[in-house]
Amino acid sequence: VQLQASGGGLVQAGGSLRLSCAASGRTFSNYDMGWFRQAPGKEREIVASIRWIGVTYYADSVKGRFTISRDNGKNTIFLQMNSLRPEDTAVYYCAAAPNGRAFKDYWGQGTLVTVSS
Predict the structure, then answer these.
(1) Phi and psi of 52, rounded to 5°?
(2) What is the CA radius of gyration of the chain?
(3) What is the pLDDT of residues 20-70, one digit of tens each?
(4) How far apart (Å, rounded) are the C-alpha atoms in residues 64 and 26?
């Protein structure tokens, strides 16, 4: 499956951004999807995920501020990010995994989110 992420940019603290990730190549609805991020000098970490059945997971650091969703008809997932903080600054990656498997084989190219204080 091929993934194309978009929607990053520069925003002030407290602002919002919406990331999108378009998928192609496989049966999208059978895949779990996720958003990860990597800040400078830090390891990649999971931000949120949504299983093929719609069950969601959020990292503690983004709970209540970020919302992950998917549109199977458009083969796209979204990450609505509200109340952004400078510590949310990172390159954000979308990922896909056959349902129940680990996110390791399918990654988008990354989109940079910069939150200024």
Answers:
(1) -60, -25
(2) 13
(3) 999 987 688 889 999 999 999 999 999 999 999 999 999 999 999 999 999
(4) 31
- Is 8 within 8 Å of 23 (Cβ atoms)? no
What sign for the dihedral angle of Cα 79, 80, 82, 84?
positive
Tell me if residue 91 falls in helix, strand or coil.
strand
pLDDT at res. 31:
92
Which two tokens mark 70? Answer: 């998917």
3-state secondary structure of 17: strand
86 DSSP assignment:
G
In angstroms, rounded to a whole number, what is the distance separating the alpha carbons of residues 74 and 54?
Answer: 15
Q: What is the average pLDDT value for the chain, to the nearest integer?
A: 95
